[in-house]
Q: What sequence folds into this?
DNA sequence: CCTATCATGTAATCCGTTACATGATTAT
DNA sequence: ATAATCATGTAACGGATTACATGATAGG
């Protein structure tokens, strides 16, 4: 069983099916959007293609409805559950990178005028504020929901999400300030270091 | 000019060539490793393939050395510089996601025993501690280096990196604690919710 | 009944990665 | 010379994204 070919997205599917029971791609999409989607999203099409692969690996089974829409319903097999558990149990270091295009722009932003940098920083601040609000809304809805499973860890990941967004807001706000200062001190031309 | 086909990695190449002058793929690799690589890495092969595409788009020019190794030296064209500036100036919201496989595991870790969760958390803590040390080393070397360009923003991105690693360490440490508590309170079997 | 929307799939493409393979310098 | 390492490329593959295209159901 070639389990080395499984990507994190594969495990999202395996995990959701294992915890929430059999589902169609469409239902999976709704599950993703309501949980992991906020920090591990992927396009809808993947939810139609990827399960096929998992079936061919023996990790899922596919059943088609008889009537009407004849849609595919996927369930995890024992092998699938095993693969999921193996992945979960494997604490080998996983490279994490702050892969943020905004930071990347900032890195090269020295080529631009300070005013531009400030704008970028403000836009990023807004973005993270929005995101924070979303997370807070979800957190609120979590608080009211009852506990499921042994210990519900989705609140934990959300806590990290909240903390990260707050950090980002603080960072970009300071960045905007710095840029404005720099701009005021030396109102540079638009072609500096062109 | 189809600039919509440029990925962030393309802009890394454009940006480095624009700020550091003409370079070969190998030199680019060293530049990446010494700067953006710490938060936007990609494999070496990309540095041989991607520039070709950028040449075909008219954003770079390629010159081959005459003697010996005949290696390719790339330089940005005016069009390339323009594309870079356009990207930098475009503050359209850029989706950022905390795409961290460790968090993903944590999200589904409820299926495992608390002991396993604690292990995961400890492994992640170590990982981020290492990362933090690296960043601190780089920061130290930055402090001694002289200022370049109008305002050197690479220190700014590094500040965010440092803050993010510290946050991650704090998060995973707490997570380890919680898991240990849960484990002590209810030393669960290995097959809970199997 | 017909239309809007909900739902479902497929095909083509592309970027990034891994693996393979070789050429040039340097040092001993 | 020759080994070791530095440097340079290419080919194949695969997951992810976009774009395309159609089927079913509910509501007016």
A:
């Amino acid at each position: 069983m070639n389990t080395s070919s499984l990507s994190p997205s594969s495990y999202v599917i395996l995990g959701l099916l294992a915890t929430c029971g059999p589902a169609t791609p469409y239902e999976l999409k709704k599950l993703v959007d309501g949980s992991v989607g906020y920090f591990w999203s992927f396009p809808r099409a993947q939810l139609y293609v990827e399960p096929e692969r998992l079936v061919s690996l023996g990790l899922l089974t596919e059943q088609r409805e008889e009537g009407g829409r004849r849609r595919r319903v996927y369930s995890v097999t024992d092998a699938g559950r095993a693969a999921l558990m193996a992945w979960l149990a494997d604490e080998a270091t996983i490279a994490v990178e702050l892969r943020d295009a905004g930071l990347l722009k900032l890195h090269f932003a020295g080529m631009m005028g300070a005013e531009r940098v400030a704008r970028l920083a403000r836009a990023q601040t807004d973005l993270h504020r929005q995101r924070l609000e979303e997370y807070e809304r979800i957190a609120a809805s979590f608080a009211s929901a009852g506990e499921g499973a042994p210990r519900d860890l989705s609140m934990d990941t959300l806590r990290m999400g909240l903390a990260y967004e707050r950090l980002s807001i603080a960072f970009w706000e300071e960045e905007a300030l710095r840029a404005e200062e720099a701009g005021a001190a030396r109102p540079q031309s638009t072609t500096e270091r062109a």
Summary: The helical segments of chain A are 8-20, 25-33, 46-56, 78-89, 101-108, 114-144, 154-185.
